[in-house]
């Protein structure tokens, strides 16, 4: 099978103009474009996070009015959820690595892939416009009747921005699924796929099945706000709780869009740095699909106190407990993989280990919250805030950073400083726990979320949390520095600096434009350690540059 | 994927005829009082019509297994959305369910 | 036509067969998300109709069954002509392909014209939700929610029809240029899938909106 030819040495050399980047069909370049986009929106979301933590240093609402605070936490949530957590791993790492991992030249629909980035950026820019014209103060959840009737904030541009962004998600998910179905190299059967691919496929299922529902929900909200149609207006026969059902039908599975790709990365990291095949490959693969499917059956656990029927609440509670099972299976299997593995504590592995601990805490507290009797007491308190930050930051961001650190040499052909990497990793880990563990305690003591002022007895824990946020912030900024530095001054990475298994490590770093000089033929299962002699990276200790 | 299967024209015409007939039936039945069965019949006929379009006009009958699976999953997810949401509203009137849904307002 | 073969094959695929299967699968995934998209509207409809069936029946009686039924026939016919278009491409009958595509598009436009007349009639009868809404029957203002749903659902459907006609014009242009034949007709087929889907949405919308409780008054 002859690959289309490119005379450039690798994909980075294949065109140096802005046009060659902005009009690229190359999934690897599109991954880099997503990296730039999500990094920008992460910065914006982080700025709002710092404002929140600054305000909460003191019990009084002295930094801003409660109204301004409403805008701040809303915009934090919107930028982080929709423009960072949902697109980051699929858009950056999925785009870059998935086609290479299955031995393909590109995704199934490269033009749609580029379009998805433009749609993502368009949605983000529209939301930025909404921000610059005052921002939204409804909470990222946009609940009516406040969002439809009473809020005078920029609900329209931001709501439409989020709606537009949804299509980027749908296009990416659709693209990945068709790619996995139709573009696998000869010999790459479903059960020889790396678990990263299974995880991305499961994510894509959720993206395609869930996102359209929030799309129509936002349409209804916009129609209601503009034309006063009454879908969610009790005075006209509508029901605000219907919005909540429609909203959470997507937004709960959305959290699995955030965590499944991270889990997908973790499978790769654990296998690579324990030098072992993942324990229970089939269980992990099916658990990914299981989480994706079960995740659609639990949304009512966000609505226990919204006047939802108690019977429905009980059903949702039970179903939520069920979805914990495949997640737990994965955590057990990764842990068992480490047992008797040749564990190397390279930078990416530290993130994987961090994930195991932090996701477990986040996941377990999720099971607490699934329990009706408990949730009634801690709903809308900082306990919930702590829970979702443990899974989203402790879970998703650990996986994202771990993946970035793992595949950076492949993407750029350069190694970064192990010292600075580990420094930033420890700062992130310590800073993160310092920020969010006190919030569990605050929630149990009853501190409500979304308030800019609080009783003085909670100040100590809040100060600890804000201090932690500063440490976390430093930890998160450092990679920008050492990654950029590595582009110019980093040691050149060979094809397989980690000595890992996987098709991506059998091509050059950076890869050629069409990924492989010759189409690979797969004859072995994934994670077939030890690396056979003769393969790139065999026998070499993992490289690092201090 | 339908391969290169060419569906005979007379099948298309037969399906078209069936769709027209079902349309006429659904309109006619709407004028007959069957009580709660009206909704059931209307829905059933619509589902039959949609199925005919899916199977024959959209070639699902002639496709590999993956395509019908994809179509079925889409339909199933719709049922999840409807079923679990309506389970809330339908059970609100039960004993101990919590606040009953207020009756429609009247003006 | 060897030239058409190689130019039709996109670089990421190894064969036209792989490309065709991928495009068809991709279109099906897209249609699945469309099902969920309309599904939110159908759920809203289901809930509010269950809650206030009298108001919904009253609202439904204001819709013109003849126009709605005519539009249903028009769309089903357009599905037939679309299927025939694909058939003609498969059998290398370019003139028929063009003819059937024109027929499909024309029927689509007829549908939209009828909808325009229906909408303007609503305008004249003060049945557009909003400040000027006024419903003459016993249910009064309760009917407004029915009409909100009527416009949201048929409006969203009409938007999909407009997009469909636009894309059809592009497919038609390529068909007239002779791009399609038994060796390569997948774009026509994929577009056909979309068109049939939009027809299916109407197959549900028509009885759900136009035929509620028609037996109450024994007629219009």
CATH architecture annotation name of chain A: Up-down Bundle
Number of strands of chain A: 0
> What is the top-level CATH class of chain C?
Mainly Alpha
Strand content of chain A: under 5%
Low-confidence runs of chain C (pLDDT<50, min 5 residues)? none
Q: What is the radius of gyration of chain A?
A: 23 Å
The assigned CATH architecture of chain C is Up-down Bundle
Number of domains of chain A: 1
User: How much β-strand is present in the residues of chain C?
Assistant: under 5%
Can you tell me the CATH superfamily of chain A? Cytochrome c oxidase-like, subunit I domain
The top-level CATH class of chain A is Mainly Alpha
DSSP helical segment count of chain A: 16
Separation, N- and C-terminal Cα atoms of chain A: 42 Å
Instruction: Give helix and strand order of chain A, one letter per element, not per position.
Output: HHHHHHHHHHHHHHHH
Q: CATH topology of chain A, anyone?
A: Cytochrome C Oxidase, Chain A
C-alpha geometry of chain C:
elongated
Most residues in contact, chain pair and counts: B-C, 52 and 55 residues
| CATH homologous superfamily descriptor of chain C | Cytochrome c oxidase, subunit III, four-helix bundle
Could you describe the 3D structure shown?
The complex is a heterotrimer of chains A (about 550), B (about 110) and C (about 220). With about 550 residues, chain A is mostly helical. Chain A has helices at about 20, 25-55, 65-85, 90-100, 110-130, 145-150, 155-180, 195-225, 240-275, 280-295, 310-340, 345-370, 370-380, 380-410, 420-445, 460-490. In chain A, α10 (about 280-295) packs antiparallel against α11. Chain A starts with 17 loop residues before the first helix and ends in a 57-residue tail after the last helix. The model of chain A is unreliable at about 540-545 (pLDDT under 50). Chain B is mostly helical and about 110 residues long. Chain B folds into 2 domains: about 1-60; about 65-90. Helices cover about 65% and strands about 0% of the residues of chain B. Chain B has helices spanning about 10-30, 35-55, 65-90. Chain C is an all-alpha fold and about 220 residues long. Chain C has one domain (about 15-210): Cytochrome c oxidase, subunit III, four-helix bundle (Four Helix Bundle (Hemerythrin (Met), subunit A)). The longest helix of chain C is centred in the N-terminal third of the chain and has 36 residues, at about 15-50. In chain C, α4 packs antiparallel against α5, α4 (about 65-90) runs antiparallel to α7 (about 185-210) and α6 runs antiparallel to α7. Chain C has helices at about 1-10, 15-50, 55-60, 65-90, 95-125, 145-175, 185-210. The chains are: A mainly alpha (about 550), B mainly alpha (about 110), C mainly alpha (about 220). At the B-C interface, α1, α2 and α3 of B face α2, α4 and α7 of C.
């Amino acid at each position: 099978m002859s690959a289309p030819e490119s005379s450039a040495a690798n994909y980075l050399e294949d065109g140096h103009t802005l046009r060659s980047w902005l009009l690229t069909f190359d999934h690897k370049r599109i991954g880099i474009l997503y990296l730039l986009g999500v990094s920008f929106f992460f910065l914006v979301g982080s700025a709002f996070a710092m404002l929140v933590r600054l305000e909460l240093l003191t019990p009084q609402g002295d930094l801003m009015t409660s109204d301004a605070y409403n805008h701040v936490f809303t915009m934090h949530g919107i930028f982080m959820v929709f423009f960072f957590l949902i697109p980051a791993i699929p858009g950056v790492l999925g785009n870059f690595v998935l086609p290479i991992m299955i031995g393909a030249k590109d995704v199934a629909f490269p033009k749609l892939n580029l379009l998805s980035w433009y749609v993502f950026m368009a949605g983000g820019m529209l939301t930025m416009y909404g921000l610059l014209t005052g921002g939204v103060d409804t909470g990222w959840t946009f609940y009516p009747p406040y969002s439809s009737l009473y809020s005078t904030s920029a609900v329209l541009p931001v709501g439409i921005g989020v709606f537009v962004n949804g299509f980027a998600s749908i296009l990416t998910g659709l693209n990945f699924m068709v790619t996995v179905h139709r573009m696998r190299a000869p010999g790459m059967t479903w059960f020889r796929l790396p678990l990263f691919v299974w995880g991305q496929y499961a994510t894509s299922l959720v993206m395609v099945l869930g996102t359209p529902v929030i799309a129509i929900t936002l349409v209804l909200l916009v129609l209601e706000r503009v034309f006063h149609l009454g879908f969610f207006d009790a005075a006209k026969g509508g029901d605000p709780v219907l919005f909540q059902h429609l909203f959470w039908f997507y937004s709960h599975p959305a959290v699995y869009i955030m965590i499944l790709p991270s889990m997908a990365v973790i499978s790769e990291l654990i296998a690579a740095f324990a030098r072992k095949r993942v324990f229970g490959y089939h269980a992990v693969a099916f658990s990914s699909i299981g989480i994706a499917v079960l995740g659609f059956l639990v949304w009512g656990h966000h609505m226990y106190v919204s006047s939802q029927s108690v019977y429905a609440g009980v059903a949702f509670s039970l179903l939520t407990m069920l979805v914990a099972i495949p997640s737990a299976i994965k955590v057990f299997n990764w842990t068992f993989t480490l047992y008797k593995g040749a564990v190397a504590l390279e930078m990416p592995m530290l993130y994987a280990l961090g994930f195991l601990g932090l996701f477990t805490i986040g996941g377990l507290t999720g099971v607490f919250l699934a329990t009706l009797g408990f949730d009634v007491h801690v709903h809308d308190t900082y306990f919930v805030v702590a829970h979702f930050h443990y899974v989203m930051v402790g879970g998703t961001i650990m996986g994202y950073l771990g993946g970035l650190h793992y595949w950076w040499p492949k993407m750029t052909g350069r190694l970064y400083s192990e010292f600075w990497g580990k420094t930033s990793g420890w700062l992130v880990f310590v800073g993160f726990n310092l920020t969010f563990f006190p919030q569990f305690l605050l929630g149990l003591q009853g501190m409500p979320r979304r308030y800019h002022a609080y009783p003085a007895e909670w100040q100590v824990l809040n100060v600890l949390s804000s201090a932690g946020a500063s440490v976390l912030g430093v930890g998160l900024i450092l990679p920008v520095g050492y990654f950029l530095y590595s582009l110019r001054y980093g040691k050149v990475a060979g094809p397989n600096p980690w000595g890992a298994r996987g098709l991506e490590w059998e091509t050059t770093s950076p890869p050629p434009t069409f990924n492989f000089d010759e189409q690979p033929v797969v004859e072995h299962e994934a994670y077939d350690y030890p690396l056979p002699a003769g393969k790139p990276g065999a026998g070499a200790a993992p490289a690092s540059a201090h | 994927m339908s391969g290169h299967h060419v569906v005979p024209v007379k099948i298309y015409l037969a399906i078209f005829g069936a769709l027209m007939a079902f349309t006429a039936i659904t309109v006619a039945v709407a004028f007959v009082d069957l009580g709660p069965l009206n909704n059931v019949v209307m829905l059933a006929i619509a589902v039959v019509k949609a199925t005919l379009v899916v199977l024959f006009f959209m070639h699902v009958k002639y496709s590999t297994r993956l395509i019908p699976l994809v179509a079925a999953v889409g339909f199933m997810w719709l049922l999840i959305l409807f079923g679990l949401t309506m389970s809330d509203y339908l059970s609100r009137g039960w004993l101990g369910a919590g606040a009953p849904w207020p009756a429609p307002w009247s003006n | 036509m060897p030239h058409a073969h190689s130019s039709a094959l996109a670089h990421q695929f190894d064969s036209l067969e792989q490309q065709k299967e991928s495009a068809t699968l991709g279109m099906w995934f897209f249609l699945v998300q469309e099902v969920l998209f309309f599904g939110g509207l159908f759920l809203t409809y289901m809930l509010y109709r269950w809650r206030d069936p009298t108001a919904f029946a009253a609202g439904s009686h204001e819709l013109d069954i003849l126009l709605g039924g005519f539009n249903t026939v028009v769309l089903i016919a357009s599905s037939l002509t679309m299927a025939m278009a694909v058939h003609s491409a498969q059998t290398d009958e370019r003139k028929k392909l063009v003819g059937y595509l024109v027929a499909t598009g024309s029927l689509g436009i007829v549908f939209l014209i009828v909808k325009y007349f229906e909408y303007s009639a609503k305008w004249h009868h003060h049945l557009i939700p909003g400040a000027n809404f006024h419903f003459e029957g016993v249910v009064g203002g309760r009917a407004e929610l029915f009409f909100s749903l009527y416009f949201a659902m048929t409006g969203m459907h009409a938007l999909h029809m407009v997009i469909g006609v636009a894309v059809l014009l592009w497919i038609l242009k390529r068909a007239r240029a002779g791009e399609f034949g038994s060796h390569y007709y997948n774009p026509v087929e994929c577009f056909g899938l979309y068109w049939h889907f939009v027809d299916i949405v109407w197959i549900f919308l028509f009885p759900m909106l136009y035929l509620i409780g028609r037996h109450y008054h024994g007629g219009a």
